[in-house]
């Protein structure tokens, strides 16, 4: 395992992603993780991340002693570099000019991490302290205008440090630098591929699971991949539960059931829509809607699980589609709180209530890796590429109170939008697209009649991760066509508008 020690940089997860993309298995560990836990990972190299601290801060995080004692190759990035220099007897100074953004790197020695790279290229800087004196046995291998020690190494080829961030895309040849570290310095050959990973997970599940296992299946990518992995590992032990909240997209429940049937997986279907509509009756506040839906979901799932336990007796496990970012997030939260808090759960709070052992086969994977695994094990394209869908479903896309009728109107309009996006081959070009039903009536004219009906807003965004998003510049002819179809075909709608705000300042959803 390539161990990435986290000193708190916003880019730490990116370092790990690059390591895995380059074919080495890596894990992220807080810098103060106990030594025994790190040893268990069988480290083959260390990468020290950047971080917000200054070496001179009180309680500045330190590189743990075991890193120096290990004799393994070490790459320090930004704060990581400064910590190496500081702890090995060099000197880091507070710098009067902060260096932030692109800088030109001048390579002085094309060795180790800089092997086969051009003499000059652009790198991404983000720091204020800088190295002034190198520890004994170190040499400088690249400089920039503001950082005379932009890249350094120990002459025994074991320690490397860079002041810039090779993990971000703004650094040219950043990936090559990390690749050189893994192959040239640490002598690792790529052995992490999704094919092996899927097989390993399946075998691991087969070894571990010795009783019935339930799973909350939503039809989204993560829970679908978990379902298929379990099906391949322990086909006769899996009981997927699909809770129909009545707040799903048009025909979604039926489609999910059919698709999984096609894969040979029988789903335990629960229609709880009445119950959801009744707890939402008259509720307008978005957070209140979310809260009620969340609680109701847990209640329904709990009751169903208990019922199934009566029936099947030996249900032992609850599988969940928790991903690596969730795991990291809850680890960070745990440390910040300074106490052991509950781990992250996709279906908020479920496990505390349930007498099952949790199984999380995706807990070491990122979203795109989950997609690759899904593809590898034969999950159909349309599940793999399905747009994200919020847990509270259409309830947060109906502004104001939710009723069976308003759900129906929204479902129809949304289905037309999605159908046309697919027809025009635009569906896979956007991160997410959907319709929103507004609590506004406007005047229109249809034929010889004056109408007074609802407004539908269309929302489509491009995004990398949902954290920021840009409104999608969909073609006018397309929008024109969709608007016409919605007004003509969806009873109760006489006007369609298109949302042209990005996130921030708006969010993707309207509630
Ligand atoms: P926002 O609206 O915050 O959405 O820009 C970012 C992404 O998160 C999804 N989303 C949710 N997902 N429960 C969920 O499971 C929620 O309450 C929720 N709210 C927003 C949203 O669809 C988008 O992909």
From TrEMBL:
Question: Which one of the record's GO molecular function terms can you name?
Answer: GMP synthase activity
Cite a GO CC annotation.
Answer: cytosol
Q: What is this protein called?
A: GMP synthase [glutamine-hydrolyzing]
Q: Enumerate the InterPro entries for this protein.
A: Class_I_gatase-like (IPR029062), GATASE (IPR017926), GMP_synth_C (IPR001674), GMP_synth_GATase (IPR004739), GMP_synthase (IPR022955), GMPS_ATP_PPase_dom (IPR025777), NAD/GMP_synthase (IPR022310), Rossmann-like_a/b/a_fold (IPR014729)
From which source organism is this entry?
A: Fervidobacterium gondwanense DSM 13020
Origin, by domain of life?
A: Bacteria
- Chain residues that bind ATP: 218-224
Annotated SUPFAM superfamilies: Adenine nucleotide alpha hydrolases-like, Class I glutamine amidotransferase-like, GMP synthetase C-terminal dimerisation domain
The EC number on file is 6.3.5.2
Q: Where is the GMPS ATP-PPase domain?
A: 192-386
Q: In which pathway does it act?
A: Purine metabolism; GMP biosynthesis; GMP from XMP (L-Gln route): step 1/1
Reactions accelerated catalytically: XMP + L-glutamine + ATP + H2O = GMP + L-glutamate + AMP + diphosphate + 2 H(+)
Q: Keywords for this entry?
A: ATP-binding, Glutamine amidotransferase, GMP biosynthesis, Ligase, Nucleotide-binding, Purine biosynthesis
Tell me, what does this protein do in biology? Catalyzes the synthesis of GMP from XMP.
The protein's assembly and partners: Homodimer.
Catalytic machinery residues: 78 (nucleophile), 165, 167
